[in-house]
Amino acid sequence: MVYIGIDLGGTNIAVGIVDENGQILCKGSTPTLLPRPYGPIIADIAKCSLETLERSGHTLDDVAAIGAGVPGILDPRTGIIPFCTNLGWHDVPFITELQKYIDKPVYVGNDATVAGLAESVAGVSAGAHSSVFLTLGTGVGGGIVIDGKAYSGAHGVGSEIGHMIIELDGEECTCGNYGCFERYASATAIIREGRKAYAQHPDSLIGQLCGGDPDKITAKTIFDAAKESDPTAVKVFRRYVRALAHGIVTIINVLDPEIIALGGGVSLAGDFLLQAVREAVKPLVFFKTMPYARIELAKLGPDAGIIGAAMLGK
Amino acid sequence: MVYIGIDLGGTNIAVGIVDENGQILCKGSTPTLLPRPYGPIIADIAKCSLETLERSGHTLDDVAAIGAGVPGILDPRTGIIPFCTNLGWHDVPFITELQKYIDKPVYVGNDATVAGLAESVAGVSAGAHSSVFLTLGTGVGGGIVIDGKAYSGAHGVGSEIGHMIIELDGEECTCGNYGCFERYASATAIIREGRKAYAQHPDSLIGQLCGGDPDKITAKTIFDAAKESDPTAVKVFRRYVRALAHGIVTIINVLDPEIIALGGGVSLAGDFLLQAVREAVKPLVFFKTMPYARIELAKLGPDAGIIGAAMLGK
What we know:
The first copy, chain A, is an alpha/beta fold and about 325 residues long.
């Protein structure tokens, strides 16, 4: 049997035919073309899915289920997507709408949750019973896998690791709260702090790397300057790692997964980031002499969205 | 079948014969008599268990399993208790030692985890698939129940909700970190802040209630003064509720349980506390229009230790 995995983004929709080991057999894509109503978007998803299925050499008889990873959540009581921020969706009956075109079981998961599931099936967390995936990008998304299953809680509102509060009265978050983990552990946080630091230290290497234009500072700018031991960038980097480590320690102390996988754009900093995070976490864990989660870099990259979505139905 | 539940404390060991619905059929107890080695303590546990079993009218043939809740953790790889702080235990082979006297399956869980399991079987969380129990006492203990089972993570170090970090560089914790949840949400935190506030406002009602002796300030002193609208106590109470609410919001955003049960000494403040916590949590949850965990007072009190321990083997 095969599974159809759909990665629904604001710009593009990626579709994949995936085998039961999480290997992509064939890929397709179609533009989201926002703003337009959900009806034609879901019609295009169905069309692209069927075309990709045909190209893979399979038929609908071979399809066990369809899964979709969305930048939002599913209400498990109703099967409706109450919101999908980037798509402007409110109360979209995604499952029944898609089933108008393809009569198969349809599963929906949050995109970060789905990426975490993918890593646990075919990525760095493969073989682990429990894992937590962190996507460190514009925000921080979380994917919790427990006993091999994507965990999104009793009401579908869990796994929002970016909104753990790690600082009472801290930085204001887009969610309306203050001190959420993602205000400290996202690429956005590095850029914000990098710009502040550059303004205070215009002689920093950061200035050379961004051509003197603070708007061009990215997370990579800071990492690159920190790798060159630029003191201003090193300070921003260390504060970033420290905040990320504190969030990871909360995950360890509460969820104690086998593995914590770092993904998203920030994780492209690779071993430089990974080693620093491991060092920072070590002295902070509660039980100092007990083993705890391995911290690793995610492996699957953008394909995780398709793979994990497909695996929702496994 | 019946289960033997053991609640192992620093002063006293409580034993109960518990049926499969979490009802205690018969209770016994024996003093811990610290400091003494674990050998005679475990021998006394076995003796007390067998005596209590006999009093209950059952025999060993009726016993399915034995469970113990300990102020520590079990290493699931080895079956050994690496530490039990209050008992001064290090690397105690509790299971094999107890099985010298009673040849039954033995399970061990952290005391807060076990109390959470008890609430989920026979208390306020009965019927819920997932729940989080918070014991608000000297510290803050946590009991996570997922799919009806006590959750302690991959290495047995999870469920330490008191050591979520809610304030970077916050109050120093006994665990060596700064900003742990229990430094803000325990009875100890209320007392600490109450004493500080009383020192600044000696005319507060707190002074009358503690007879002018700040050493006599307890959590109850602050709650009682806050109930009388004493402005100093109200301020301490509000700050306490706010910190507790922020920790609860992290639990909701990450674990999204069906129910969060508040236990421990602080929860004796009852509805006065409960209503304030519910009010404080409401505006802070990430998905404002979605349902989230019911917040309730725990029901079982001290018996939770015996019941939950017994239910470990169910």
